[in-house]
Write a structure and sequence with these properties.
The chain has 120 residues and is an alpha+beta fold. The chain contains four helices and three strands, in the order αααβαββ. The chain has a domain at 54-119. Helix 4 links the parallel strand 1 and strand 2.
Length: 120
């Protein structure tokens, strides 16, 4: 990058900023993007058969201090289960989500318990 290009990109730069970046001005070059020599489409893959039925997900947060119900972030836990393949989806007709919390017993560490059950 030349000093002129630097001034065009950063017209309000102070002299101190220009001095600190002087070593970059003549040596910096724009990166060159690599080109994919053989663009390919994805081949047909085997899709996993959908799991039919409904599921109940119980999330129990065991904490030293109880939180407001809306701060337990059950959406994050359910999405993690879905991405891991433990749940086929989190649609309301397919998955029932129950959230609970309780205080730790003396000597018990904070944790989150997740149970996934099939609902007939």
């Amino acid at each position: 990058m030349s000093p002129e290009q630097f001034n065009q990109l950063f017209p309000n730069a102070t002299d101190a900023v220009r001095k600190r970046n002087a070593h970059l001005l003549d040596t910096w070059t724009a990166p060159v993007m690599e080109r994919n020599p053989q663009p390919r489409t994805l081949g047909e893959g085997k899709a996993q058969e959908g799991s039919h039925g409904r599921f109940r997900v119980r999330i129990t947060s065991v904490r030293n201090r109880l939180l407001d119900e809306d701060n337990l972030c059950e959406k994050y836990v359910v999405d993690c289960c879905r991405y891991a393949g433990l749940l086929p989806g989190d649609a309301p007709g397919q998955t029932k989500i129950e959230v609970d919390q309780r205080k730790c017993s003396k000597g018990e560490a904070e944790h989150i318990a997740v149970s996934i059950d099939r609902i007939p």
